[in-house]
Amino acid sequence: MSRLVEHAFYFKDPAIVARKLLGKLLVRRLGNRVISGMIVETEAYYGEDDPASWASKGDNWIRRVMYGEPGRTLIYMVHGHWLLNVVAMPPGVPAGVLIRALEPLEGVDLMVRNRGVNNLRLLTSGPGRLTRALAIDKSLHGLPVYKKDSPIQIIYHREIPDSEVGRSGRIGVKRDLDIPLRFYIKGNPYVSVGKKPKSSG
DNA sequence: CGCCAGATTGACT
DNA sequence: GTCAATCTGGCGG
Q: Does the CB of A79 sit below 7 A from strand C?
C-alpha cells in the first residue's frame, strides 16, 4: 500500500524536509512500468543566506523555482549530470532539498538498462547516477511529487529513527555553512561516498 | 554566437 | 587524492 506524501510536508524548513525524506520512496512511472527506490541520502539548501545555493546567485530560472511552490521538482544540470531537487518552504521563501542517493527497489532491470552498469552499488549511489537510472531529465522539471497522476512521486515507506541518521557537511560545495546539512542513513551501502562526518562523536 | 561556471562522475596514481 | 570529460543556462558582444 503506497501513501503519497502530502503537499503540506514540503512547506517546512529544508533541513527538516531533508531529514524526513530519508526512508521514503522515490517513484518514477514510465508508461506501465514503475521504477522506485528508497531515499538514503539528501542535502538541504537555503536561499539568500546560503552561499552554496543557486538561489543566492541573482536572477535565473532556478531561483524562480526555488521561490515557488513547494513539493515540485527542480531539475538542472551540473558537470553534465542531471540533479533532482524538491522545492521546500512556502512560496516566497527560497529553499530546496537535493536527492543524493537511493536504494533500488522496483524496476532494477530498467535502472541497469538506463545506467549501462550491472553493479547494484553504483546504480543510484549519487545525485547524477540516480537521475540517469530513473530516466529523470529536464522534461520532468517543475512537476509536483505529491500528486497521484504525476510521473514522479514521493511516498511513505519507512520511518528512520535518529539513531540511524548520520549528518555531515554538504558534498562538492565550495562555500558551505557551519551547520551540517547533509543527511544519510548510517550503514546503508547505497549512500554515496563523500566527506566524512565532522566529528566522530 | 562564444565563453565560463558548476550542488559530478569515472579512471588513474 | 587528483584530474579530465560532459551539458546547459546566463551573460556579454
A: yes
**What is the enclosing helix (H) or strand (E) of A120?**
helix A120-123
| Closest-lying nucleotide for A64 based on CA to C1' | C9
C-alpha A130, offset from chain centre: 9
Residue–nucleotide distance: A18 CA to B6 C1' (Å): 22
Q: What is the mean pLDDT of residues A71-77?
A: 92
Map grid coordinates 527497489 to a residue. Answer: A105
Q: For A56, list phi and psi in degrees, rounded to 5.
A: -95, 10
Q: What does residue A138 show for φ and ψ, rounded to 5 degrees? A: -60, -20
Chain C: nucleotides below 7 Å from protein CB are 5-11
Identify the pLDDT of residue A200.
34
Q: Which residues contact A107 (CB under 8 A, 6 or more apart)?
A: A28, A30, A33, A34, A35, A36
Q: Give the predicted TM-score (pTM) of the model.
A: 0.92
The helix or strand, by DSSP H or E, that contains position A98, with its residue range, turns out to be: strand A96-106
The answer to whether residue A44 scores a pLDDT higher than 90 is yes
Among A147, A33, A21, residue whose Cα is nearest residue A84:
A21
C-alpha cell at A53: 545555493
Nucleotides of chain B within 7 Å of a protein C-beta? 6-10
Report the C-alpha gap between A52 and A113 in whole angstroms: 33
